[in-house]
Amino acid sequence: MNKITILIHCKDRSKIIASVTNFIAQEGGNIVYIDQHVDREQDIFFMRLESEFISESFSTDNFKNSFKSDLAEKFQMKWRIYSSDKKPKMALFISKYDHCLYDLLGRYNSGELNLEIPFIISNHLDLKSIADNFKIPFYHVPVTKDTKEEAENKQLELLEKHKIDFIVLARYMQIVSGKLIDKYTNKIINIHHSFLPAFVGAKPYHSAYKRGVKIIGATSHYVTEELDAGPIIEQDVTRVTHAHAIEDLITKGRDLEKIVLANAVKLHANRKVMVFNNKTVIFS
Amino acid sequence: MNKITILIHCKDRSKIIASVTNFIAQEGGNIVYIDQHVDREQDIFFMRLESEFISESFSTDNFKNSFKSDLAEKFQMKWRIYSSDKKPKMALFISKYDHCLYDLLGRYNSGELNLEIPFIISNHLDLKSIADNFKIPFYHVPVTKDTKEEAENKQLELLEKHKIDFIVLARYMQIVSGKLIDKYTNKIINIHHSFLPAFVGAKPYHSAYKRGVKIIGATSHYVTEELDAGPIIEQDVTRVTHAHAIEDLITKGRDLEKIVLANAVKLHANRKVMVFNNKTVIFS
Amino acid sequence: MNKITILIHCKDRSKIIASVTNFIAQEGGNIVYIDQHVDREQDIFFMRLESEFISESFSTDNFKNSFKSDLAEKFQMKWRIYSSDKKPKMALFISKYDHCLYDLLGRYNSGELNLEIPFIISNHLDLKSIADNFKIPFYHVPVTKDTKEEAENKQLELLEKHKIDFIVLARYMQIVSGKLIDKYTNKIINIHHSFLPAFVGAKPYHSAYKRGVKIIGATSHYVTEELDAGPIIEQDVTRVTHAHAIEDLITKGRDLEKIVLANAVKLHANRKVMVFNNKTVIFS
Amino acid sequence: MNKITILIHCKDRSKIIASVTNFIAQEGGNIVYIDQHVDREQDIFFMRLESEFISESFSTDNFKNSFKSDLAEKFQMKWRIYSSDKKPKMALFISKYDHCLYDLLGRYNSGELNLEIPFIISNHLDLKSIADNFKIPFYHVPVTKDTKEEAENKQLELLEKHKIDFIVLARYMQIVSGKLIDKYTNKIINIHHSFLPAFVGAKPYHSAYKRGVKIIGATSHYVTEELDAGPIIEQDVTRVTHAHAIEDLITKGRDLEKIVLANAVKLHANRKVMVFNNKTVIFS
């Protein structure tokens, strides 16, 4: 049994849904999941389908070709089709904070994540032993003012060599370059330790403390050129009071960060996220 | 422009989605919303569609007939089709608590609710002035041991006369009879002041206080013969501490009750709820 | 039985708690509630006490005098003492939105609020009938560019005449002048329809929609000269998805606004809020 | 500088707070934290204090003796006094689930927990490698019908030898015996994977799925003889929909379990929990 996931978006028109479902039926597929959304402001149609094909002669490549010529061109669709038997490959970028790392590797180990982690990159050696314990290859790529370009080339080389599908910055404390962002557009997931768009940039817990907010948050988003301004995938919040010092916010925030990042990673790895005009459509 | 909402459930089979979308296309409709769910435990397929028909000759009755003969019988579907221009009629049953009443009538007044309220029934006179202020007809139907059947007949008469589609028990402090439940199956919405299935029955805040829970809740559900055991439509919770006395739980709970009930009413009135095997499927 | 509430803040020093509790014991009082907080960053001590006095000769004024000379001066305390038998007087400022108004008046009517509402001021006539229904005097004080100062004087006159203790802007769609703010510092409560400091200013739901946030919020704060930048009293949030249009955010937001504002009003009316350096300490 | 934490409860009487604060002042202490609660239903007074003593001659034992004779006996207090420089010792009991284990050990490693973990006991060998990675001694104590008593004696021996202060059952899949409960009353913390008192006993996620709840939860409580009926320390919940299969509830629930258990462990280790009449008072 072959199973594929189809993500489509295009200008909204009548009969799209019937055309797509019809096409899949003609190709011998059975739709097991369908969800759609229309952005009325921008008049854009979004759809996500999962379809099963029993025929042994089914080929994802052939299906893609027919889909393109028979359907996608007619509606001028942007589309992606994934075969369910191919797990996406995720690279982990880390620095010195270990909570998101432990959390993701714990989930990975227990089989909760539908992905592969070919390697971990860090600009520091502090967390190497954790990677070793989980038996994930660890590359130390230090980043200094002078070695920035060299480091980036090393990163790109590793990403390409391992055919990485997406990158997760698990509290990686470096600005990612435009070159990397261009190559992995909407494929680099960051966790920011505030409820965006509040408290962009460095030290958000300090800013939240100073402003006296009663709720703090964490936000996972795709990385774009503008700092902390990319499409938001997932957010969560927790209550705080005057009695919480900055260190308390940091401690409470860690629990938000790891859960929010893990949820964003799962949504992305399960091909449930579409991006349009700096916003996400999430078919969960 | 005619707009209809279709709700379907049947045993899961292949090609249902394509068959339905195809049928609608043939009838000249454009699908503007589709959502589906398969209950894998019970092998049941659920679907909700909204479709628009431009043709002036479109008739909902004709569509229903074709739908039944050409599609529903083949898949042995249970189905309901609603015309969007017909607002459902809701009867409000109340007793002495006013918070849910104020909340629902405030929303009704501001146009937030897609429904009509032909009348309010109460077994007490306490809240009559609120109904008067909002200019909703108010019927006082007292219920005592001796007048129970008479009261019920009076209620049924009013419900039928006004062609009521569904009933909302807004903290109505009486057990509804089996006769009413049979006639309005999955059409009587209750608000229970606990996080069901915890604290079934009377005085749930007292029980929650006694048990020392750290979170209290409210649950809106369809009324069935078994007390507080019907299909759950909506639930919400809020934190409490040891410092909250029973009266504090009651006060905090009121805010949950009114929001949860209003959300359940909106889901039902917008035909987003399906019931199967004492559980709800909610296409929101 | 006399009951008083004492709020204190001063530079942190040793022995403050023992000194205060000792003083109250000497005066014949029994402490029934005590809570304290030390802001370690700024080295400021905060305390809230409730104390009962059985003696018939007890006088709040005498107590205040002794408190001032025997205790407050020694520690250079800022302090406030309230008698529990005096309910604070709240003025309601409204414009055209009715949800917060209905919610507050519903609570007021049912005895949930420990306060009096001598009158409602509005710059429009739209909601007069609601005030009438609840039998609260309603003053129409229109505000235009030309009449701004005149309107303000009318407001001040009413506030003074009725000995108003604090003002609640229940979606009052006008900027309050510096004169009013100076006279009622930390006594004007506003509800802003966003999760501050995100989306300051006009049309926050539109901004939230545009940014694609996954959670929206509401914030109640004291009004200061800088727009939406005053001390935060209470905040709450709710989840949204890509499927929510701007109108959905507005509808969902209304439920947040009314609950958050009501909670802030209750905290203030029960003398549980202290303000220092643009932040609140809330002893709840 | 010596710092102690004092927990007190007794029948409510007047002048308790003044008496305690006075006593501490006389002993040369400075109160840096005070919180109190009166259970009006049962007329019980609870208090938690933190006090610092600068004098080099201060001895916690001497203080305890004075406290007992000069104060506790007069008010017939139940009391506990802890020296802040003594971290409590926690034994971890586990079986086969690793998520709570990873989470607690990750926090332990990063210094978030104010406690020591002298050893881990498991009735299975599956998670030994995790204990090894974190360098915590691991004891395999298998439990079968025939070896139940022997296993328990082995457990008690380890607990006593290491002077364990409290036990955490991190998804330990065995019923703990009455002997252990008696010896560690209100010192055995369990995590139950439901929102208690809903879904007591085995397979709560299956029961939640069957009931069709819209919110699932997790509860951390002290173990008592009656199953899942002990004093609740902490609870949390998360939303689910009809689209979540049982495995989804289990996955989502794991995130609740680990956060709720960690919070309960921190509250207990920081001596913030008091138990009375099967309920907790939590001074957080």
Automatic annotation (TrEMBL), chains A, B, C, D:
It catalyses: (6R)-10-formyltetrahydrofolate + H2O = (6S)-5,6,7,8-tetrahydrofolate + formate + H(+). Pfam families: ACT, Formyl_trans_N. It comes from Algibacter agarivorans. Its EC number is 3.5.1.10. The active site is at residue 228. Residues 5-86 form the ACT domain. Catalyzes the hydrolysis of 10-formyltetrahydrofolate (formyl-FH4) to formate and tetrahydrofolate (FH4). Keywords: Hydrolase, One-carbon metabolism, Purine biosynthesis. This is Formyltetrahydrofolate deformylase. The keyword Membrane does not apply. The keyword Zinc-finger does not apply. InterPro entries: ACT-like_dom_sf (IPR045865), ACT_dom (IPR002912), Formyl-FH4-Hydrolase_C (IPR041729), Formyl_transf_N (IPR002376), Formyl_transf_N_sf (IPR036477), PurU (IPR004810), PurU_ACT (IPR044074). Belongs to the PurU family.
